[in-house]
Each structure stands twice: as C-alpha cells, then as structure tokens.
Automatic annotation (TrEMBL):
Gene: Chadl
Lineage: Eukaryota, Metazoa, Chordata, Craniata, Vertebrata
The LRRNT domain, residue ranges: 19-53, 366-400
Ranges of Basic residues composition bias in the record: 714-733
Family membership noted in the UniProt record: Belongs to the small leucine-rich proteoglycan (SLRP) family. SLRP class IV subfamily.
Gene Ontology CC, one term: plasma membrane
PROSITE patterns found in the cross-reference section: LRR
Signal peptide: 1-17
Domain LRRCT: 296-344, 647-693
Subcellular location: Secreted, Extracellular space, Extracellular matrix
Region (Disordered): 321-365, 695-733
Subunit structure: Associates with collagen and binds to collagen fibrils.
Matches recorded under InterPro entries: Cys-rich_flank_reg_C, Leu-rich_rpt, Leu-rich_rpt_typical-subtyp, LRR_dom_sf, LRR_TM_domain-containing, LRRNT
Superkingdom: Eukaryota
Name of this protein: Chondroadherin-like protein
Organism expressing this protein natively: Glareola pratincola
Length: 733
C-alpha cells in the first residue's frame, strides 16, 4: 500500500508539473516557470504546484493580494521586478516558507506595513531597490529571521525610526543608498547584531549619525559618501570592528584629531572630493594604513606639516596632491619634504558649523482610552475605532501616530498637543473635509503626513503652519478640482507631493508656488488637459513627474523647460495621438525613464526623440497604434524597451529597426501588424525583410526562428552600445 501511494503521489506531481498557464514558459525538469513581459494583471492561478523558481518580470499586477502564492508552496525564488506593484497587502506572501530570494525592484511600492512580508521565514535576499518607499513601520521585517541581504536603494526614505530593522538577526548587508535620509533614530540599527556592511551613501545626512552607528559593533564597512556632511567631530565614529570608512564626495571642511579614536580596527579612510584644506594628525586611528585625499583643495603650507609628519611616523599611505601654494601645486603628498612646506601669514581654517542635535524629550502621559501605545517603538494607534474626534494624551515621545479609518470630518487647530517628536502621522480614510489653520501646530519634527482617501477639496497654507520639516504629503484620492495654489508656501522641505486620483483639470501658474525643493510630483489619474508653461517653474529640482491617466493631447514640452534634473516622466494613458519634433528637448540631458505606453499613439515624428541618447535606460511604447518608430540608434544605454502590441508594418522601411532590435540584448516584444502574411509574427523572425535591398549583409542566420531569443538567454555575450549604434547607422545607409 505504501508503494502504491508513492506511485499515485508521483503521478499527481507529474500531472501538476505539466500544467503551464498562458503566456508562460515552463521548464519541468528544473521546476522553473517564466511569464516575462506579458499583460498579466493577476498572479496566474494555474502555476504548477511543484514550481521552485517563478519569474514574473514585466507584468502589471498593481496589488499583490493576501495569499497570492498559496498554491505554490515550494517556491525558492520569486522575481517580481517591473510589475507596477504599488501595494503589498498584509499576508501577501504567506505560505512561502521555503522562499530564499524575492526581487521586488523597480515597482511603485510606497509603504511597508508590519505584516507586508509575513510568512517568509527562510528568505535570505530581499530586493526592494527602485520603489518609492517613503516609510517603513517598525516590525515590517520582524518575520525575516533568515535574511542576510536587504536592498532598499533608490527609494524615498527620509527617516529611520528606532528598531525599524528588528528581527533581522543574521542580516549582513543593509543597502540604503540613493534615498533622502536626513533623520536617523538613535536606535535605528540597534537590532542588527550580524551586520557587516552598511551603505548610506547618496543621502541627505548633514552630520555623521554617530549615536545610531555606535550600535553596530560588528560592522566592518561603512559607506557615507555623497552626503552633505561638513564636519567629523571628536570620537564621532565609535565602531569597534570598522575597517573601511568611505566619506568621499561629501562637504567636509574639517576632521577632529580623535574623530576615529573609538574605531581601533580602521584600516582605510576615503576622504576624496571634499573641501579639506588639510588634516590634523589622526593620532586616535592607530591601525590606519591608507588615507585617500584626492580631489581636496590641500594647502601644503606649514599648517599641514604636523599631518605630514604623522603620516611618516605612523607609516600611513596618503593619496592626494597640493593645490597651493603655487610652487607646490600638483605635487603628491608623499613626495613632499618638510622644509618645502612653508608659511607666510598662517590663517586658521574656518570653524565649520556643526548641526546641533535636538534633545530627546522624555516620554510621559498615558495612552488615550481605546488606543494602543508601544513604548519600545514610540508608536500610538487608534486605527478603525469609529472615533469622531482626534484623541489627545499620547506619550510625548510618540513618533508614529496611526489614526486611519475613523470619522473625524475636520482637523481643528492644535489637534496634536505635546507631540513635538512626532515624525509620521496617518490620517487616511477619516472622512476629513477640512484641515483648519494651525491644525499641525507644534509638530516641528513631522516628516510624513498621509491624508489619502478623504474629502479634501481645498487647503490653505496656514494649515501647515508649525510643521516646517514636512517632506512627504500624500493627498491621493481626495476631491481636489485644482491644485491648492499657495498651500505649500510654508513647506520649504517638501520633497514628495501626491495628488493622484483627484479631479484636477489643469495645472496653472502659481499652483506650486513655494514648492522649491520638490523632487517627486505624482498627478496620475486626474483629468488634466493642460499644463501652463510656467506651472512647473518653481520646481526646478523635480526628478520624477507622473502624469499618467490624464487627458493631455500633446507632450507638455513648454512646461518641461527648466527641469534640468528630471529623470523620470510618465505620460502613459493620455490621449496623445501625435508626437512632434523635439518633444523632450528641455529634459533631454537628464531624462532616464520615459513612459509613453497605452496612449493610442498613431505617429511619432522622426525628430520626436531629438536630444535623447545614452542616458535613456527605459522606454515604454507598448499598446500604441503607430506602424514605425524613429531612429533610436543612439539609445545605447537602454536596459528596458517595450514594444508589445504595436502594429508594425513589416516592410523594407522597418528594416533598420529590425536589424537594431536583432542586436539588442533585450526582449522587446515587437510584432508585425501588417502585411497580412506577417501579421502576428515577431519582427525578429518575420521573413518579410528578406527581399529588401541590402538584406544578407551581416544577416546570416539572423532571422532564424531557433535563434530569435538567443540574445536574451543567460551566458550570451552582450554587444556594446557603440556596436549597436554602428549597426543601426550602417543599416540606414
């Protein structure tokens, strides 16, 4: 009987393994399923149960619902890159106890709640790079006890609360580069006993976060480059195991002599590209072997002699060269002799301004009735309590206050007394129609304000009085018919503004007055038909502009003038039928990601992409109606090109495109819409081009069906951008 049961089980397993949902490809021998770059809007329900590796890159899921993968409990690898995911429901990954690798990069996730990643007890690598995560609630990673690598690069984080990484007992590398971090809780890294590497480069830290870093006894490498840090104070770096410290490309003007005295293992110190005129002897760093000072304006006078003498005594290698005095300009530090380092009239270096730390207020007060307060996390919550008035009496050290799903109607003046340390305030789905002047008075450390799913139709600048550090304002799903002009005058630190899914019909001059530091503007899902040329003028630092799902009939070229930092532009789902010459010229030098999909686009002029070139990394043109596209041979930096559901006319005029995409190491999804004999065929395999003049020069085997996807397979050598450009230009000739 046991043998019979085994045979039946194997038979069922084999049956399960043979089912393969469309449009996926299943490799039953290796238990792999690939559903790449399709039009899936939900996780396929017929994936073989025994699947171990599931690749769903390039689909359109928006939401990962509760229990989405309960039917595939044997998964070890799951790839959800570029799937337009905006929300992970609590419990989305339950049942995936065997998963070791999860990639959610390049999506639109904004928030990680406490149960978002529940059920992933074996997960070792979590990739969340390139989302728009603004906030992480403490406890979000509490179930990831096996995680060794956490990648949060290129998100929108400003603040890390205390104990935010609690539960990550074996984490070895935490990647937080390319965010906007400028506030770190003193206990932010307290729960990371195994961490060896911390990447905090490319953020907005103005002072070295010494108190938070002191919790990392085992970390050996710390990346702090590309932060506006001006000074490293006495004993600022207190990390017992630190060996490699990177403070390059910052704004350093001075370093204290004993700045590294409490990091006895420090071996290499990278201070390249700062504003250092010199350094004192770093006597406290007894183990130091190398200091990199290249790119600093070093004054090699007698003032630098003590440092130079210390280098020789301590046998520390120094990289860098003199910029003054003129007689020593360009001389490497290690070539100097003491008598050469003379002084005329010594000038002491300017004393840098050191940002002062705000004293922490002691927690006091009881929790309001019916609410819960967590002293460990500094949280307060009255979520979904059917409250009519905002409760008072939270502990003074509360930093995150969750009041979602109540029925407040209005937020009166002084609604949050005594909460000077509050950083994050959640007021989603509270039927709020009025935010009265002074409503946020006293919230001097507030960074995040969530007002999604309310009934707001107007806002006055006075509503934000008393909250000058507010950086993230979420007003999605309200009833704004226009942008509340002048409302942002008192928000000099505003970085991210969400006004999606309102009924805004126009972006007018003055609407964004005062929003001079804005970097990310989200206006998707409105009814915008016009953007006045000066409307975006105040937002000169803008990096992302999302306008998808509006009523624009042309690219707002005039309004883009002056946006020299814009790297991402989304125009998807606008009724733009024709695209004229120079449509993106004002942002051509900075644009990297361009979304032009699902517009019904019928014609793209030959010069529409003028000025765009190697900086473009992703271009989305799927689901349009044009039959040809302009020369893109200079798009040599492309990582993503989507041409699915475009009815290309496969004749000799399309031959340059045919040759170009044949050489790309990308899946582009281009298919023929005409002539009739080629309809439905991939452009890369269509035989319609074989009668064209010049076919056969360098085409040997190029259109053979068996070789169509060869360039996309692992191990295939990628052609260089230059060779692609040469190939395209030659084919045009």
């Amino acid at each position: 009987w046991g043998l019979l049961l085994l045979v039946v089980a194997l038979g069922l397993g084999g049956t399960a393994a043979t089912r393969c949902p469309k449009p996926c490809v299943c490799d039953n021998l290796r238990s792999h399923v690939l559903c790449l770059n399709g039009n899936l809007t939900a996780i396929p329900g017929t994936i073989p149960q025994l699947t171990k590796k599931l690749d769903l890159r390039g689909n359109s899921f928006t939401v990962i619902p509760v229990g989405a993968f309960l039917d595939t409990p044997y998964l070890t690898h799951l790839d959800l890159q570029r799937c337009k995911v905006e929300r992970l429901e609590e419990g989305a990954f339950r049942g995936l106890g065997r998963l070791v690798y999860l990639n959610l990069a390049s999506n639109g996730i904004a928030l990680l709640y406490q149960e978002s990643l529940d059920g992933l007890s074996s997960l070792q690598q979590l990739i969340l790079e390139g989302n728009r995560i603004e906030e992480i609630q403490p406890g979000a990673f509490g179930h990831l006890g096996s995680l060794t690598v956490l990648d949060l690069r290129a998100n929108a984080l400003v603040y890390l609360p205390d104990m935010v990484f609690q539960g990550l007992q074996v984490l070895r590398w935490l990647r937080l580069s390319h965010n906007a971090l400028h506030v770190l809780g003193s206990e932010a890294f307290a729960a990371l006993p195994a961490l060896r590497r911390l990447s905090l480069d490319h953020n907005e830290l103005q002072a070295l976060p010494g108190e938070a870093l002191a919790r990392l006894d085992g970390a050996t490498r710390l990346d702090l480059g590309h932060n506006p840090i001006t000074y490293v104070a006495e004993k600022a770096v207190s990390m017992a195991s630190l060996k490699h410290l990177f403070l390059d490309h910052a704004a350093l003007q001075d370093v204290a002599p004993d700045a590294f005295a409490r990091s006895p293992q420090l071996r290499t110190l990278d201070l390249r590209e700062n504003q250092l005129r010199g350094l004192p002897p770093l006597a406290g760093a007894r183990g130091l072997a190398k200091v990199s000072l290249a790119g600093n304006p070093l004054l090699c006078s007698c003032l630098l002699r003590p440092f130079h003498d210390w280098l020789a005594r301590a046998r520390v290698q120094a990289e860098g060269s003199c910029t003054a005095p003129p007689a020593l300009r360009g001389r490497p530090l290690d070539s100097l002799r003491a008598p050469e380092m003379r002084c005329g009239r010594p000038r002491p270096p300017p004393s840098p301004t050191v940002p002062s730390e705000q004293p922490r207020a002691a927690g006091s007060g009881q929790c309001p009735r019916g609410c819960t307060c967590s002293p460990d996390f500094h949280h307060g919550s009255c979520e979904n309590r059917d409250l009519r008035e905002i409760p008072k009496g939270f502990p003074r050290d509360t930093r995150l206050l969750d009041l979602r799903r109540n029925i407040f109607g209005t937020v009166p003046p002084g609604a949050f007394p005594g909460l000077k340390e509050l950083v994050s305030l959640h007021l989603q789905s509270c039927s709020i129609g009025v935010l009265q002047p002074g409503a946020l008075q006293g919230l001097e450390n507030l960074v995040y304000l969530y007002l999604t799913n309310n009934r707001l139709s107007t806002l006055a600048a006075a509503a934000f009085e008393g909250a000058p550090r507010l950086a993230y304002l979420d007003l999605d799903h309200n009833t704004f018919a226009r942008v509340p002009a002048g409302a942002f005058q008192l928000l000099p630190n505003l970085i991210s503004l969400h006004l999606q899914h309102n009924t805004i019909g126009e972006l007018a001059e003055g609407d964004l007055a005062g929003a001079t530091g804005l970097r990310w503007l989200y206006l998707a899902g409105n009814t915008i038909g016009r953007i006045a040329p000066p409307a975006l003028a105040p937002t000169k630092m803008l990096e992302k502009l999302h306008l998808e799902g509006n009523r624009l009939t042309e690219v707002p070229t005039s309004a883009l003038r002056g946006l020299s930092a814009l790297s991402e532009l989304k125009l998807s789902r606008n009724p733009i039928k024709r695209m004229g010459d120079g449509a993106f010229l004002p942002v051509a030098s900075s644009l990297q990601h361009l979304y032009l999909d699902n517009m019904g686009l019928e014609q793209i002029s030959p010069g529409a992409f003028a000025g765009l070139g190697p900086k473009i990394r992703s271009l989305y043109l799927e689901s349009n109606k044009m039959s040809n596209i302009p020369d893109m041979s200079n798009f040599t930096g492309l990582e993503i090109l989507n041409l699915r559901d475009v009815p290309f006319h496969c004749d000799c005029q399309l031959l340059p495109l045919r040759r170009w995409i044949d050489k790309l190491n990308l899946r582009v999804g281009a298919t023929c819409g005409s002539p009739a004999e080629a309809r439905g065929l991939k452009v890369k395999v269509s035989t319609a081009f074989q009668t064209c003049p010049g076919w056969g020069r360098g085409e040997a085997g190029g259109a053979h069906p068996d070789k169509t996807e060869a360039a996309s397979k692992p191990g295939k050598k990628k052609r260089s951008g230059k060779s692609l450009a040469r190939g395209f230009k030659k084919s045009r000739a």
